[in-house]
Records
---
Amino acid sequence: MYMTQTVWVVDQVLRAAGELEAAGGTVRGFRRTVAERFAETPVSAWELAYWNRGVRCGLVRLNSHWFRLGSGRRSSFGFFVRNEAGLTVGLRREALTQAATYAALVTHYGYPRARARFESDFLDVALRDERGEVTLYAETKASDRVLDKLTAELASGFRDGPPPLVLAEGQKPPDAHQKAGHILRTRPAHFWAVSPGRRLAFSVRYTGPGFDLTLVDDIPAAPREDLFA
């Protein structure tokens, strides 16, 4: 379900976009570009619910065009993206989904805040156990269509390991290959694929050089303990 009425977090981001545009350093019509992006991919009711929870519980703190999860310099994340020339050019729509995912892990599934990691070791969101091992890897996308494509490729093409690739110099591997590499490197028991309108949970079974993904009802909840430890 997507929100059709005014959403406070969208208002916050649009206000910040307008302030940045007025101050210079953005492409022309930047606020309008951000508004159009929100029209294409509206904030879902699920995202808004966990932004509300995150802010109310102190997990997410807003400051104009960026937000903070936790403490320290590496806990600050921007709503906008810049080009190579340093101009702010667009909305980082995925950031809203990532923060909602992080807040859901703590406030709904019951994981301690210290175990939930955001943009760490090339993983969008992850849970780590007391030894620092990844137990859940959450991959977020701003588009339901892009997420569906990714999960279909991950679920069907990596049982025997990543297929060989021939890449031109400087060319990056396809997205599914990169995410499969993260799964094989960190070896989580569960993979959670999240976009504004999707929350797809998978158990991961390792098959020698590769893995299988099996769709399950939901990711596991944590044992009851201090949520904000």
---
Amino acid sequence: MEWAQVLSIVLPIIFAIVVGIFYQNKRFEDMHKRFDDVNKRFDDVNKRIDDLREEVRDLRNMIMLLIQRETFYRGYFFREEERASVKEEKVS
């Protein structure tokens, strides 16, 4: 075999390998972009969940405050310390 024959066989194979590597790298880049997009979406969902937790916490505190006021006006107390503090306020 002469070098021309060897090169005519080897060069197309090497060219196909190089093109395959570049194509595969492009697909990997696309896959990384998609994963980044999914990660951004999950971050948005986590932020929304945190906002909802904060709103629920605020609502819970507001409801607890209303319940405490209602029980105070009716004369019921949650804890003995509250009863003692109310007695001290009435005495003052």
---
Amino acid sequence: MSELITDQIPAGDQENTVETTIIPEIVPGSENSAEDEILPTDEGTGPQPEAVDLDEGKTELEKLIARRTGFWQVKIEAQDAKWIKNACQGKFEFTGPNEAFMLMNCFLGFSSAVSRQESEKQTETIVVQASAIEACAFFINRFSASGVESAQRLFRIAMNMNNVMMELRSLDEQIEALRQMEKATAKLADAPDTTANTTAAPETEG
């Protein structure tokens, strides 16, 4: 499923350094006068915070999982996105708590996407979280309707979501492969080192 995640991660705490300017004491009759006072200068505001790399410190597996569960851009017209949101309120049928949870994910995801689409005046694309996209695909495949108009709408939505679903499946395969590699690596690391414990057998006199 594809949603748009716009998490703001605050930059780390930075030390605030204050530069102080020493103003020499002015003695009447001395060479220093008021015109010679050394005043603080306003030259810049100090070092600017650097951009934060959200993937810094993450493993390749963590990066793939974050992408897999994040937001995705889907080419869906505004009227179709609204239809999906409205279908969650009566047209999509569910059975049991698991499917009920999926339906809530679908409704919340597409409700937020429609609101963003309207505020940004987008008419052909939306940004949705992956869980909402997968839930929508699940209910679309089970949806029962009649008439050419409903068939065209359902087919159009399914085809527009197909590319994202293929990407999600590809990421699932990559994530599973990395998990298997990590398990194999951990198993080798935990295995006892038999070569280090072997000692040469004492020589016997013939």
